[in-house]
Design a protein that fits this description.
By secondary structure, this protein is mostly helical. The protein has one domain. It has 9 helices and no strands. The chain has helices at 10-14, 17-36, 41-61, 66-86, 94-112, 117-125, 136-165, 169-178, 181-198. The two termini are 28 Å apart.
C-alpha cells in the first residue's frame, strides 16, 4: 500500500458490505409476512427465518466464513423468539435496537480508555495485534475513526427507538434497510477518510505503524 492506502478502502480491509446487505433481508421478509397476516405473527416469524436460512445457505455456497453466517442466522432466530414470547411484532427489532445502543457505548468507551475499537478491528485484520498503539498518530486517527462508528450506532438508536415505541413495524423495516447497508457503506467511507486525514504527511499508512513515544495515558 502506498502512502495512506489510496488503492484500498476500509471496506477492503474489514469487509462488511455483503454482511450488511444480508442483514436487511430477514427484516424485510418479516414486514412482508406481517402485512400479509397481521393477526398471525407466526407467519411473519416463519418468513424471516426462511429468509435467514436462504441467505445463510447462499453465503455458505459462495464461500463465506461459516462463523459469520451462523452469527447472522442466530440474530434472526433470537429476534423471532423475542416476538413469539412478547406477542408484539415491533419486538422483532428490539434485539437490533439494544445491540446498536450497546455498540455505541462500547465504541465510546474504547476511545475513552485509549483502545479505540476500530484500531483493534484493523489490527486483527492486518495481523498487527496491538503494534498500532505504539504509533501516536495512528492511535489518534483510530480514536477519531471510532467516534464515527459510535455516531453510526447512536443515529440508529435515535431513529429506531421512537418507531419501536410507536409500534411502527413497517417503518422499522424500512428504517432497518435504509440504515443498514447504506449507512454501513457511508460509515466505512467516512471513517476511512477521517483516518487518512488524521495521519500526518509522510506517514506510511495503517499497514505500517510507526513506533514513537507514547504518553502514559496511551500505554
Amino acid at each position: 500500500m502506498a502512502g495512506h492506502g489510496r488503492d484500498e478502502s476500509l471496506a477492503d480491509l474489514l469487509g462488511g458490505r455483503r454482511g450488511a446487505v444480508d442483514a436487511s433481508v430477514p427484516p424485510v421478509a418479516f414486514a412482508v409476512g406481517y402485512l400479509a397476516a397481521p393477526d398471525r405473527l407466526w407467519v411473519a416469524v416463519v418468513a424471516a427465518l426462511v429468509a435467514g436460512v436462504v441467505v445463510a445457505g447462499w453465503r455458505l455456497f459462495r464461500g463465506r466464513r461459516p462463523r459469520a453466517v451462523v452469527l447472522g442466522l442466530l440474530g434472526t432466530a433470537v429476534a423471532a423468539i423475542v416476538v413469539l414470547r412478547t406477542g408484539r411484532a415491533e419486538d422483532f427489532f428490539l434485539v437490533q435496537l439494544a445491540a446498536n445502543a450497546a455498540s455505541a457505548l462500547v465504541f465510546l468507551a474504547s476511545v475513552a480508555v485509549r483502545w479505540p475499537l476500530l484500531g483493534v478491528m484493523l489490527g486483527l485484520a492486518l495481523g498487527q495485534r496491538a503494534r498500532w498503539r505504539r504509533d501516536p498518530a495512528l492511535l489518534r486517527a483510530y480514536d477519531r475513526g471510532s467516534l464515527v462508528w459510535a455516531a453510526q450506532y447512536a443515529l440508529r438508536v435515535v431513529v429506531f427507538l421512537p418507531l419501536w415505541l410507536a409500534g411502527q413495524v413497517v417503518a422499522l423495516a424500512v428504517a432497518r434497510v435504509a440504515m443498514t447497508w447504506p449507512l454501513v457503506i457511508a460509515t466505512l467511507a467516512v471513517s476511512w477518510w477521517v483516518i487518512r486525514r488524521s495521519l500526518p504527511a509522510g506517514h506510511p499508512g495503517v499497514r505500517h505503524p510507526q513506533p514513537g513515544e507514547v504518553s502514559p495515558a496511551t500505554a
